[in-house]
TrEMBL record, chain A:
<keyword id="KW-0698">rRNA processing</keyword>
<keyword id="KW-0539">Nucleus</keyword>
<dbReference type="InterPro" id="IPR039411">
    <property type="entry name" value="NSA2_fam"/>
</dbReference>
<dbReference type="Pfam" id="PF01201">
    <property type="entry name" value="Ribosomal_S8e"/>
</dbReference>
<feature type="region of interest" description="Disordered">
    <location>
        <begin position="45"/>
        <end position="67"/>
    </location>
</feature>
<dbReference type="InterPro" id="IPR022309">
    <property type="entry name" value="Ribosomal_Se8/biogenesis_NSA2"/>
</dbReference>
<comment type="similarity">
    <text>Belongs to the eukaryotic ribosomal protein eS8 family. Ribosome biogenesis protein NSA2 subfamily.</text>
</comment>
<feature type="compositionally biased region" description="Basic and acidic residues">
    <location>
        <begin position="93"/>
        <end position="110"/>
    </location>
</feature>
<comment type="function">
    <text>Involved in the biogenesis of the 60S ribosomal subunit. May play a part in the quality control of pre-60S particles.</text>
</comment>
TrEMBL record, chain B:
<feature type="region of interest" description="Disordered">
    <location>
        <begin position="460"/>
        <end position="483"/>
    </location>
</feature>
<dbReference type="Pfam" id="PF08155">
    <property type="entry name" value="NOGCT"/>
</dbReference>
<dbReference type="GO" id="GO:0042254">
    <property type="term" value="P:ribosome biogenesis"/>
</dbReference>
<feature type="domain" description="OBG-type G">
    <location>
        <begin position="160"/>
        <end position="331"/>
    </location>
</feature>
<dbReference type="GO" id="GO:0005730">
    <property type="term" value="C:nucleolus"/>
</dbReference>
<feature type="compositionally biased region" description="Basic residues">
    <location>
        <begin position="548"/>
        <end position="559"/>
    </location>
</feature>
<feature type="compositionally biased region" description="Acidic residues">
    <location>
        <begin position="470"/>
        <end position="481"/>
    </location>
</feature>
<keyword id="KW-0342">GTP-binding</keyword>
<dbReference type="InterPro" id="IPR012973">
    <property type="entry name" value="NOG_C"/>
</dbReference>
Length: 327, 630
């Protein structure tokens, strides 16, 4: 190999070309910051600044022309966006103006400070607290509990269940198909098709719900454990139909809540706040007792349920002692 | 392809869905139609998002698939982790969008009213758009990466490259500006060059890349910033000849010792690469003008077989020497052989050691002719070439050019190319050439080989004549043919005589041709017998039979009116019966035929029609039908 003549070596060096032949052109391609470099070397066009100024001043006219002449859906969207922009602009202007003017500062007056002519009127705040307590008692008597949606529209059977005709001449009409979203448990198996009266289609079976914690204002996607109560009918409760206002149990172990005794809470109730069959997802609000509404008397209304693994802290909410959620 | 911002992306896709899918639907349509309508919208939106995101994902280079030089460069510039994460997020978003569409299409199958289907479609589109809204920062980052990536110089990592490195401000960018057409910014402050620049130059009929790097300062690798890391990346990955540029005049702001320190620190990066040290700015200070210890530095480098070349980008001395044009046979062995040659040699060596060379070598064959006798056959160099070479060296005065003549004569100058013509007769050079002669274009007949062709033709003709080609052959005909020929000749003669006779006889002027008139039997027989034909069986001849037949038919005709005119009878030969009698056997048939003819014509005649095709209506609105109240 070393004994190769020079001629041959030259041949080799020119013949063996690399596989990837990049496109090399004689003119240098623009590299890196060529625009800035050009600006630096050659400056601007002679009329650049004037053109820029005029273009900017024309902008307002063009925008208004566009806003006037646009029609249709495009116009609606544009006007909505522009309206939001204008509100923001007004706010900033107002903020700037506030700096210049002087305004009354409400924070300076401490709470409880009362002007001279009202000095004798005490006890107002206390009265309010008392009336709250009376209201709470009344609710307990009536059996009404605090839930985010106290009243919901009743769903009739024709809405929820669709008649399925069977038989040789399609005359038999004893089967029903659920048209709303439903929940079936883990170990659910269908009855033999010949005997099942209620059909819950697989496409409408959901396992997860988007549950919002009302105080944290955070939403989590939690697995459903079961349907506690459907306000429209106990039949729906047994079937597991989930409509707006249904109370469901969700698995909250993700949240990591702990009781005072040190036990982990893993199940809680939540109420469904949307129409799952229209939205394709179940949105629910977690039912918690906030400190503001809790009082000594209300403890009697709570019923504690024991779970297998731990003494979980649950709230059960019943709309009314009888049935019929709607009133 | 531009990477759109999240808001733009959503706007474009939703407006596209609104424009490109059908928009009209009514409550009373069949439910499957309503479902299909809304499902189509969901799927269309999903398809658009999917396609666009896929395009983004495929267009961006995968760091594992590209050359390690570019992978490393991208890591330095854009941070590999961030880049991969951004692309990963886009991928996840795409999968999520697909899943959302799938779920909602499944749900829509249970939609039993238009309202429900519409709400589901709204929910689906909303979810897809929310997924995309979350990708806002990834999309922005990718757009910036794309813009920067498109401006990166196109450095081919595999071809011949010269790499310039050194401290900032030593003159690397000036060097590349001198040697190539690249226009790199040269300024007195450090770090003017902030990224890699590439220029191309030609040497020895091959294209070379020259890569300019930002200056490197002397600190450890971990402390290097992005700009310096680009230079390090280029040094690490490109198989190039390295030109380490130094500044003996110390105008760059760093002493020679510091430069030497840096050189030693990055020495490991120069492994397996031809290395040249370029002492730049020699117009300011030459090496010989330096102090003893500094000169020693350069001397040490020379002893280590690293050539040191003094250059000045200002006065351009030494710049060419770096490449060199002077060929010498033992250039590989010399220690001060400059950069390009050494790189070429190194490249050829590596190729020879590699595997692919055998494919080429097996196909190359340098043929050396073997000596067939002891005769010396030295290369022949024509005298003209030798003289020219000598002229180049001695710079002899060249022959007078047209240009010189033009300059001399000024306005009087006329371009006269005829004086260069090579003719047999020198006097004819300035003659005027006619263009047209006797109605023909002279140019059509010009053929430079005409004399030669004429000579050849004449020779051929001579040969042919001698061979006897032009003598006619009379022996080939036999007696019969000759008899026929003589007879034919006689007939021709007779014919001509007859024609002449008739021309003389013609006192009546134009006459009817012979075939127009009826030929009488007697005349026919007489002429035929004159000619010598045998007329014995003339009663059985065809014309006699025909005559007998035709007479029988014509006797039965009664009406005069239907008899054909005499001119017609004369023109028809007696052998042909008239058409209203041909094919009819007897009187009864004739009567019937006549009756049929009359019948078919009766309706037409009643309606005053000229023929079967006459459909002209004389009265479109007859009064007796249209008058009166409606």
């Amino acid at each position: 190999m070393s004994g190769l003549s020079t001629a041959r070596r030259d041949l080799i060096s020119s013949v063996t070309v690399s596989k990837k032949v990049y496109d090399v052109i004689t003119i240098s391609r623009p590299q890196n910051e060529h625009i800035e470099l050009h600006r630096k070397r050659h400056g601007y066009r002679l009329d650049h600044h004037e053109r820029k100024r005029k273009k900017e001043s024309r902008e307002a006219h063009e925008r208004s022309h566009k806003a006037r002449k646009m029609i249709g859906l495009k116009a609606k969207l544009y006007h909505k966006q522009r309206h939001a922009e204008k509100i923001q602009m007004k706010k900033t202007i107002k903020m700037h103006e506030q700096r210049k003017t002087k305004q009354k500062d409400d924070d300076k007056t401490p709470e409880g400070a009362v002007p001279a002519y009202l000095l004798d009127r005490e006890g107002q705040s206390r009265a309010k607290v008392l009336s709250n307590m009376i209201k709470q008692k009344r609710k307990e008597k009536a059996g009404k509990w605090e839930v985010p949606l106290p009243k919901v529209r009743a769903q009739g059977e024709t809405e929820v269940l669709k008649v399925i005709r069977t038989g040789k001449r399609q005359k038999k009409a004893w089967k029903r198909m659920v048209t709303k979203v439903c929940f079936v448990g883990d170990g659910f198996t269908r009855k033999p098709p010949k005997y099942e009266r209620f059909i819950r289609p697989m496409g409408l079976r959901f396992k997860k719900a988007h549950v919002t914690h009302p105080e944290l204002k955070a939403t989590f996607c939690l697995p459903i454990l079961g349907v506690k109560k459907n306000p429209s009918s106990p039949l729906y409760t047994t079937l597991g139909v989930i409509t707006k206002g249904t109370v469901i149990e969700v698995n909250v172990s993700e949240l990591g809540l702990v009781t005072q005794g040190g036990k982990v809470i893993w199940g809680k109730y939540a109420q469904v706040t949307n129409n799952p069959e229209n939205d394709g997802c179940i949105n629910a609000v977690l039912l918690i007792i906030s400190l503001a509404t809790m009082s000594a008397t209300s403890w009697f209304g709570l019923r504690f349920l024991a779970f297998i693994s731990a003494m979980a802290h649950l709230t059960t909410c019943v709309f009314s002692k009888g049935r019929k959620g709607t009133k | 392809m531009v990477v759109p911002t999240a808001k733009e992306f959503i706007d474009v896709t939703l407006s596209k869905t609104q424009r490109k899918t059908p928009t009209v639907i009514h409550k009373h349509y069949q439910i499957h139609r309503i479902r299909h309508f809304y499902m189509r919208k969901v799927k269309f939106t999903q398809q658009n998002y999917h396609d666009r995101l896929t395009q983004i994902l495929t267009d961006f280079p995968k760091l594992d698939d590209i050359h390690p030089f570019y992978a490393d460069l991208m890591n330095v510039l854009y941070d590999k982790d961030h880049y991969k994460l951004a692309l990963g997020q886009i991928n996840i978003a795409r999968n999520l969008i697909d899943n959302v569409a799938k779920d909602y299409v499944r749900l829509m199958k249970y939609g039993d009213s238009m309202y429900r289907c519409k709400q589901l479609k709204r929910a689906a589109l909303g979810r897809m758009c929310t997924i995309l809204k979350r990708q806002k920062s990834s999309l922005e980052y990718l757009e910036q990466v794309r813009q920067h990536l498109s401006r990166l110089p196109s450095i081919d990592p595999n071809t011949r490259t010269l790499l310039l490195c050194g401290y900032p401000n030593v003159g690397k960018s000036s060097f590349i500006n001198k040697v190539t057409r690249a226009d790199v910014d040269v300024q007195p402050y450090a770090f003017t060059t902030k990224s890699l620049f590439v220029g191309h130059m030609d040497y020895r009929y091959l294209r070379w890349q020259v890569v300019d790097t930002p200056g490197i300062l002397d600190h450890p690798l971990e402390e290097r910033n992005t700009i310096e890391m680009q230079a390090i990346t280029a040094l690490a990955h490109l198989r190039a000849a390295v030109l380490y540029v130094m500044d003996p005049s110390e105008q760059c702001g760093h002493t020679l010792q510091e430069q030497l320190e840096l050189f030693n620190n990055i020495r490991p990066l120069f492994a397996n690469k031809p290395l040249i040290v370029v002492a730049n700015k020699c117009d300011v200070k030459k090496i010989s003008e330096l102090s003893e210890e500094n000169q020693k530095i350069f001397a040490d480098l020379s002893t280590e077989e690293i050539p040191v070349i003094e250059t000045s980008t200002l006065t351009e001395e030494g710049v060419i020497k770096v490449k060199t044009e002077v060929r010498s046979d033992s250039r590989r062995a010399r220690s001060d052989a400059p950069a390009c040659d050494r790189l070429l040699a190194q490249r050829v060596n590596t190729k020879i050691k590699g595997k692919k060379v055998h494919d080429v070598l097996n196909r190359l064959h340098l043929a050396m002719p073997s000596k067939r006798d002891e005769k010396e056959r030295p290369p022949f160099i024509p005298e003209g070439a030798l003289n020219r070479r000598k002229a180049m060296e001695v710079d002899t005065p060249k022959r007078k050019l047209e240009r010189d003549l033009e300059m001399e004569l000024g306005d009087d100058y006329v371009l006269d190319l005829q004086k260069y013509w090579d003719l047999m007769n020198e006097d004819e050079k300035n003659d005027k050439i006619p263009e047209v002669w006797e109605g023909h274009n002279v140019a059509d007949y010009i053929d430079p080989d005409i004399m030669r062709k004429l000579e050849e033709l004449e020779k051929e003709e001579e040969l042919k004549e001698r061979a006897g080609e032009y003598e006619s052959d009379e022996e080939s005909e036999d007696e019969e043919m000759q008899e026929i020929r003589s007879l034919a000749k006689q007939i021709r003669e007779k014919k001509q005589l007859l024609v002449l006779e008739s021309k003389e006889k013609d006192v009546h002027g134009p006459r009817m041709p012979r075939t127009a008139t009826k030929v009488e039997k007697k005349k026919l027989e007489k002429e035929m017998s004159n000619l010598g034909l045998d007329m014995n069986d003339k009663n059985d001849s065809h014309y006699a039979l025909q005559a007998r037949r035709s007479r029988s038919v014509t006797r039965k005709r009664k009406r005069e009116a239907s008899a054909p005119p005499t001119s017609k009878t004369r023109s028809q030969s007696a052998s042909r019966p008239p058409r209203d009698q041909s094919g009819l056997r007897d009187v009864k048939m004739v009567k019937k035929a006549k009756k049929m003819m009359k019948n078919s014509q009766r309706d037409m005649n009643r309606q005053a029609r000229k023929g079967e095709s006459d459909r002209h209506v004389f009265d479109l609105k007859p009064k007796h039908l249209l008058s009166g109240k409606r």
